[in-house]
Amino acid sequence: MTTRLNPYISFRDTAREALEFYHGVFGGDLNMNTFAEFQMSEDPADADKIMHGQLDAPNGMTLMAADTPSSMDVQDTSNITISLSGDDESQLRGFWDKLADGGSVTVPLEMAPWGDHFGQLTDRFGVAWMVNIAGQGGQGGQGS
């Protein structure tokens, strides 16, 4: 198996709703398993929460998420931002528009000094995103 790196987001009681939202943004195959399905819930209130969810988008992107059990503290993800970059302007603007719905834009998606279109937002679930659309020069300034 090839080594992969992909985001795994921790939520408190909203993983199902968040994963369904991201499924609407990115499409693909969504699989979710609850704590009860794997007999992993010590607290009955956690039984129907998501122990593991995985979204495999048709373009090869993978996003994973889970609810943090009530007996554990939620991880602080304020120092993490998920970056989407590439040269498919239509696709990336579509992702931007859907992620921004119900969220807050911190940097509008517009021409950046490096020649790409760039923006930042926090979605309705508190997850930070950056979108970089490569300019004419194809440099993709943010890691493309």
UniProtKB/TrEMBL annotation:
Family annotation (Pfam families): Glyoxalase
Gene3D superfamilies: 2,3-Dihydroxybiphenyl 1,2-Dioxygenase, domain 1 (3.10.180.10)
Domain Glyoxalase/fosfomycin resistance/dioxygenase: 5-131
Protein name (record): PhnB protein
InterPro entries per UniProt: Glyas_Bleomycin-R_OHBP_Dase, Glyas_Fos-R_dOase_dom, PhnB-like
